């Protein structure tokens, strides 16, 4: 990916832990590296095909000057999120916020915070087998798509499937969606749980009936195993009720561990029937 760099933008603002910093203010230096394709702009000399670094610089200044925060980390998060939400051509931002002569009682040049934030692609499985199943699934899709840090880019058709796990219950309505998001995997999991909770999801019986079930299937090409979250989903390659809708929206997506595409995994599941 190409990059546009704004280096050491000088901004006088009022941030810091000490009250005098918030009143007197001081200089901050901001470096922003914008990850974007410059190919079209380079071939056409068309400004609208690129990211206007002058506009971005003024946006950064406005964010930093119009607010007062204690931490450099807070400034960095706000600047990164605003740039990504304002400029669709930017896929990732690398930010460095420097604070010269930070008041720590010792001689130093600068203290700085560096972060990288960007858009990620996640695939989510949807399921419901209680109440108005279709309404629960559509409500979850709307809840994700209406959040500023999430964009639903594709949704599969819904299909009726038999319950999984041996618990006697009603048939499920299942689907899958593709999501463009600024959330980390852990933050996305929390967001999904919030949506499930709003749909009155109860976790009483393992593999039991539920108003709404939302699972992260894949997140970019990430491999993650924690006590609370496994990516890719451990059962992904075994479940036709997940692979069928996922193959509809991303048949080419490759499992980062198994190395097979969604379409290939679905064919293998079908062959084992």
UniProtKB/TrEMBL annotation:
Enzyme Commission numbers on file: 4.1.2.25, 2.7.6.3
Keywords: ATP-binding, Folate biosynthesis, Kinase, Lyase, Nucleotide-binding, Transferase
Stored InterPro entries: Dihydroneopterin_aldolase, FolB_dom, GTP-CH-I_C/QueF, Hppk, Hppk_sf
A Pfam family annotated for this UniProt entry: FolB
One MF term in the entry's GO annotations: 2-amino-4-hydroxy-6-hydroxymethyldihydropteridine diphosphokinase activity
Domain 7,8-dihydro-6-hydroxymethylpterin-pyrophosphokinase span(s) in chain numbering: 206-217
PROSITE patterns according to UniProt: HPPK
Pathway info: Cofactor biosynthesis; tetrahydrofolate biosynthesis; 2-amino-4-hydroxy-6-hydroxymethyl-7,8-dihydropteridine diphosphate from 7,8-dihydroneopterin triphosphate: step 3/4; Cofactor biosynthesis; tetrahydrofolate biosynthesis; 2-amino-4-hydroxy-6-hydroxymethyl-7,8-dihydropteridine diphosphate from 7,8-dihydroneopterin triphosphate: step 4/4
Reactions that this protein is recorded to catalyse: 6-hydroxymethyl-7,8-dihydropterin + ATP = (7,8-dihydropterin-6-yl)methyl diphosphate + AMP + H(+); 7,8-dihydroneopterin = 6-hydroxymethyl-7,8-dihydropterin + glycolaldehyde
Protein task: Catalyzes the conversion of 7,8-dihydroneopterin to 6-hydroxymethyl-7,8-dihydropterin.
Family the UniProt entry places it in: Belongs to the DHNA family.
Name of the protein this chain belongs to: Bifunctional folate synthesis protein
Organism: Muricoprocola aceti
């Amino acid at each position: 990916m190409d990059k546009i760099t704004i280096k050491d933008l000088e901004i006088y603002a009022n941030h810091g832990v000490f009250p005098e910093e918030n009143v007197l203010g001081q200089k901050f230096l901001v470096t922003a590296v914008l990850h974007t394709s410059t190919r079209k702009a380079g071939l056409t000399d068309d400004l609208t095909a690129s990211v206007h670094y002058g506009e971005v610089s003024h946006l950064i200044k406005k964010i930093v000057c119009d607010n007062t925060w204690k931490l450099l980390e807070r400034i960095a998060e706000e600047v990164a999120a605003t740039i990504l939400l304002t400029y669709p051509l930017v896929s990732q931002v690398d930010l460095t916020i420097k604070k010269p002569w930070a008041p720590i009682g010792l001689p130093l040049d600068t203290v700085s915070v560096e972060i990288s934030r960007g858009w990620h692609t996640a695939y989510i499985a949807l399921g419901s087998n209680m109440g108005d199943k279709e309404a629960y699934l559509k409500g979850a899709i709307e809840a994700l798509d209406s959040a500023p840090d999430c964009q639903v880019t594709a949704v599969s058709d819904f299909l009726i499937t038999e319950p999984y796990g041996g618990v006697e219950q009603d048939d499920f309505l299942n689907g899958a969606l593709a999501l463009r998001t600024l959330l980390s995997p852990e933050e996305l999991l929390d967001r999904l749980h919030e949506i499930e909770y709003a749909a009155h999801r109860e976790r009483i019986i393992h593999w039991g009936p539920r108003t709404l079930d939302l699972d992260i299937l894949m997140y970019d090409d990430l491999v993650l195993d924690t006590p609370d979250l496994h990516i890719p989903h451990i059962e992904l390659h075994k479940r036709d009720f997940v692979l069928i809708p996922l193959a509809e929206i991303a048949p080419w997506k490759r499992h980062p561990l198994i190395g097979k595409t969604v379409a290939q995994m679905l064919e293998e599941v079908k062959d084992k029937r």
